[in-house]
Amino acid sequence: MSSEKVRASHLLIKHQGSRRPASWKDPDGSVIKNTTRDAAVAQLKALREDIVSGKAKFGELAARHSDCTSAKRGGDLGPFARGQMQKPFEEAAFLLKVGEISDIVDTDSGVHIIVRTG
Question: From the candidates 16, 43, 65, 86, which is the catalytic residue?
Answer without folding.
Answer: 86
